Task: inverse folding
């Protein structure tokens, strides 16, 4: 049970590869860490027993990191503290913040205007995610039967998992993935076994038919009809992005500007991307999380010892590098253990 009245050294937003890896290093170095996952997230009890992310989350929890699941409603910094509020009433404070929620990829250029939120979504939500056009075509006496066609488009495992979640709510389900390594993964096998289809291809154009169905065109010449289109990772536009709440300097796409260690324009906030769609996505995201975590620990030590200008600060910096340099990270995250 997470104590919402407790103050933490670091508030980590995002429990993916970057956030979990950072939390493990931070907790292992003796910091009090809270990990909040804005989309419902990952917690030790919610993950399958195998896989690099599940192992990293369990190791972070074993080192003392605390996990809370829930949508982040508000996060701000003022004075020497940061305050995080999540759906359900939880409110937490901390000295520093690590945003590990990825960069905003935006919607694909080929998606027709007005399709997002009506027949195109970032994730399935049971029968409620069916498009209104598809629901209208179901005869009145057969409203309970799934009839629509669902197509999930993405790089790999994420698109396959979205397709699997849609199997019970659609007549036909197809996953269109660009990562060839994902064709033979467990999720692809399970989707085929459930009657779904998996193809390696890229969607390059789409048009909305008068019926409301989307017609997708691919580089391999396929024409796919989708009553419901899933674009995992695209993300719906948000009214109050975390970058705005924290007053961060952003680029043209709304992504925080950071240093090589993830530091933002807010001296108490770090940001790392958490792209796990590619085959090497976990390793890259974990490495970025570790670099940011080291920077945060260094900042904490330097602040407590009087800063880099003092002899104590320089000594703390050397001690930090020696201690963190000896830590290992299990699985793919080990690729980031030498960065810093």
Result:
């Amino acid at each position: 049970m997470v104590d919402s009245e407790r103050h933490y050294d670091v508030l980590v937003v995002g429990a993916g590869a970057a956030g979990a890896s950072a939390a493990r290093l931070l907790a292992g170095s003796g910091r009090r860490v809270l990990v909040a996952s804005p989309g419902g997230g990952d917690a030790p009890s919610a993950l399958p027993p195998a896989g690099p992310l599940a192992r990293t989350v369990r190791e972070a929890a074993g080192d003392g990191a605390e996990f809370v699941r829930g949508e982040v409603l508000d996060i701000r910094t003022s004075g020497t503290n940061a305050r995080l509020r999540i759906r359900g009433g939880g409110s937490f404070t901390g000295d520093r913040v690590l945003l590990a929620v990825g960069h905003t990829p935006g919607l694909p250029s080929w998606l027709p205007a007005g399709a997002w939120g009506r027949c195109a979504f970032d994730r399935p939500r049971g029968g409620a995610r069916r498009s209104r056009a598809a629901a209208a075509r179901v005869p009145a006496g057969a409203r309970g039967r799934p009839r629509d066609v669902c197509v999930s488009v993405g790089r790999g495992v994420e698109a396959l998992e979205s397709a699997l979640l849609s199997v019970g709510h659609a007549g036909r389900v197809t996953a269109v993935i660009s990562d060839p390594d994902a064709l033979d993964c467990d999720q692809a096998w399970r989707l085929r076994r459930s009657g779904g289809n998996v193809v390696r291809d890229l969607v390059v154009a789409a048009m909305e038919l008068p019926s409301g169905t989307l017609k997708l065109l691919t580089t391999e010449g396929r024409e796919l009809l989708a009553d419901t289109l899933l674009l995992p990772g695209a993300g719906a536009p948000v009214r109050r992005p975390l970058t705005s709440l924290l007053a961060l300097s952003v680029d043209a796409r709304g992504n925080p500007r950071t240093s090589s260690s993830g530091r933002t324009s807010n001296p108490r906030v770090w940001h790392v991307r958490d792209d796990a769609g590619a085959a090497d996505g976990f390793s890259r995201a974990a490495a970025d999380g570790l670099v940011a975590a080291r920077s945060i620990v260094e900042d904490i030590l330097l602040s407590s010892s009087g800063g880099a200008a003092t002899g104590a600060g320089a000594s703390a910096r050397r001690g930090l590098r020696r201690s963190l340099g000896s830590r290992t990270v299990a699985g793919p995250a080990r690729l980031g253990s030498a960065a810093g």
User: Anything to note?
Assistant: The longest strand covers residues 91-99. The chain has eight helices and 15 strands.
